[in-house]
Amino acid sequence: MSHTVIRILVASKNPVKVTAAHQAFSQVFPNHTIHCEGVNVDSGVADQPMTESETRLGAQTRVRNCIDMDTDTKEDYFVAMEGGVDQFEEGAATFAYVCISGRDKTIHTGRSANLPLPNSVYQRLVCGDELGQVMDDVFKMENIKQKGGAIGVLTNNLATRESTYTQALILAMAPILHPDLYV
């Protein structure tokens, strides 16, 4: 039995993001072989986006840059994820925006749930630190952002950066799965 191969270009070489894209597409297209490749592309925003709008723009810029890299049109989908933080009425939180595009270059944008951040962590971000660095310091770990992320350590690994990205990507694919309903 042959499987159709779906080729995905992920706008990051971070293994958490590449694996999340692979997981999401494997769940959505279980009868296909999924091939994910990560590439480094510029987000056009700060390393640590500090607002929802900046985070969304970073994901959209990354996916557009990914599309532009596909000069031989071999990819079926382009995926980008951008983590950010913002101050909300309930307090500071981290979240991610995700973008998916097919060959038609239509960008489908989604967003993850919020993870509340301790004020002490948020204050360091305001001073210019990146969330991964701060969490490494607070939890005496190394390279948290390529593991479970702040989400993992703050939820005792009940949720992870990868699981959050995977869920957000699956939700963002609704228009791809049902294009007749999203006209």
From TrEMBL:
Cofactor: how and how many bound = Binds 1 divalent metal cation per subunit; can use either Mg(2+) or Mn(2+).
Report the source organism.
Answer: Marinomonas pollencensis
Tell me, what does this protein do in biology?
A: Phosphatase that hydrolyzes non-canonical purine nucleotides such as XTP and ITP to their respective diphosphate derivatives. Probably excludes non-canonical purines from DNA/RNA precursor pool, thus preventing their incorporation into DNA/RNA and avoiding chromosomal lesions.
State the Gene Ontology terms under molecular function: ITPase activity; metal ion binding; nucleotide binding
Pfam families for this protein = NTPase_I-T (PF01931)
**By its UniProt entry, which InterPro entries does this protein fall under?**
ITPase-like_fam, Non_canon_purine_NTPase, NTPase/PRRC1, YjjX_NTPase
Task: Report if keyword Zinc is assigned.
Answer: no
Q: Which reaction does it catalyse?
A: ITP + H2O = IDP + phosphate + H(+); XTP + H2O = XDP + phosphate + H(+)
Its needed co-factors are:
Mn(2+); Mg(2+)
SUPFAM superfamilies recorded: ITPase-like
**Domain named Non-canonical purine NTP phosphatase/PRRC1: which ranges?**
11-176
Q: Where does Mg(2+) bind?
A: D42
- Under Enzyme Commission nomenclature, its number is 3.6.1.73
The entry assigns this protein to a family as follows:
Belongs to the YjjX NTPase family.
Which PANTHER family would you find in this protein's record?
Answer: NON-CANONICAL PURINE NTP PHOSPHATASE_PRRC1 DOMAIN-CONTAINING PROTEIN, PTHR34699
List GO BP terms, alphabetically. nucleotide metabolic process; thiamine metabolic process
Subunit structure comment from the entry: Homodimer.
Q: What is this protein called?
A: Inosine/xanthosine triphosphatase
